[in-house]
Please model this.
Amino acid sequence: MKTLRHVDSSVESCYDFSYMKANWRTFFINLWKKLQRESHWFRPGLGYKRWLILVFLGTTFLGLGMALIILDAYRTAPDSWFLPALAYLSLRFLDRPIRVIIFGGFGVIMVLIGIWGSNRSLLKPFVPPGTPVIDAIDTYRRRERGPRVVVLGGGHGLASLLRGLKAHTHNITAIVTVADDGGSSGELRRNVGILPPGDIRSCLAALSNNEDLLSQMFQYRFSTGGGLEGHSLGNLFITALSEITGSFESAVAESGRVLAVFGQVLPSTLTDVQLLADLENGDGKIHHVSGETQIRDTNGYIKRLWLDPANTPAFPPAISAVLNADLIIIGPGSLYTSLLPNLLVRDLADAVRASKAIKFFVCNVATEKGETDRFNCLDHVQTIEKHIGTGLFDMVISNNHFEGDLGPNAEWVEADMALYKHVTVYSANLVDQEHPWRHDSKRLAKTVMDLFYERTGPLIR
Model:
């Protein structure tokens, strides 16, 4: 029995030792991983080390001042219990280099822990749940240094592209058409005399830092209610801000602040413009049509499109953004009622052509009834060249994935060999699987940015 009990206790001791050893190993592995994760604070580009150095310098001077005070007290204090206590606390029984290492090490550790804790406390309300602070800061800094991107268009296509681009850069300017005259925007335009806010509202929501509750509320459309039915809350909000601030552009800027928008949304012009078109139907006659809604609803082939007034001046900040851009993207969006109304604004197309930015044209995935029936990608390009002239963009980006149900009134927009002979083309799978008539925002944005960096390399600011 004694032998058996002795063996059991030996086994139990070995088990306890192995368990403790495993625990210590786990502890050191977790500690090492945590130190590696926290060492990311010293990565270049965060804009953090400069302030850390300043804190250390300030702490050094403060410590030097305190040391001088203690040294003066040590030299002038009467020979009593104070001197032995001070000598003991200052570790005078150790060599001076060892004391420097001990006090300096404790000081550095305390400063780092204090900065780490204060940063976490200050940034906690602004960091998404479950995201490490360092990752949130790194993402913000990377996007802050991203290229200056200008996107021209309107409608759902532009909003979809913006939703994907904001993951790559914060320096985004969306230039939006103000020729809309239908729905809530058209009614506010006729009754209140405000520029149509609909497309601008969608772009603001797409660029919002928080597209959850606040942006959904901004996009909310009333389904019932006398006088409210069909209106979106965002349109009414921008209209109210226009009255409060005294101008439409100020209302758009203030709306961007409310939605925490990274970048800016600008109207292409502040002039109240009408979209006019000449349409040719089956009888061979030319019909003059006024207004975006009538252009969409009237059967026929659009021969020519122009603005009234024809000499509409561009919004100066829009011109400035185009001239200072690193990348300009035209589209996606309705060809005749979103893209061309921007480019027909005086000086805007000339500014795009004069800009040193790389210019991409993103062709639509599918045709639109009443605008681009039976159009292929080359038809889109030639329509723009017919109205604006050649040399407007460096590359055409088109979709090459044609799977999914588009419905009865749409067809795939394909890039044929004639397009490849006409311009530089890049084709990829850009389709949203749930809505195949639209672009997938993440795929499109990644394709655009990869092509941009392939031509320029990373930008250093």
Notes: The first strand starts at residue 149 and ends at 153. The chain is about 50% helix and 10% strand. The beta strands are 149-153, 172-176, 264-267, 274-280, 286-290, 301-308, 327-330, 358-362, 395-399, 425-428.
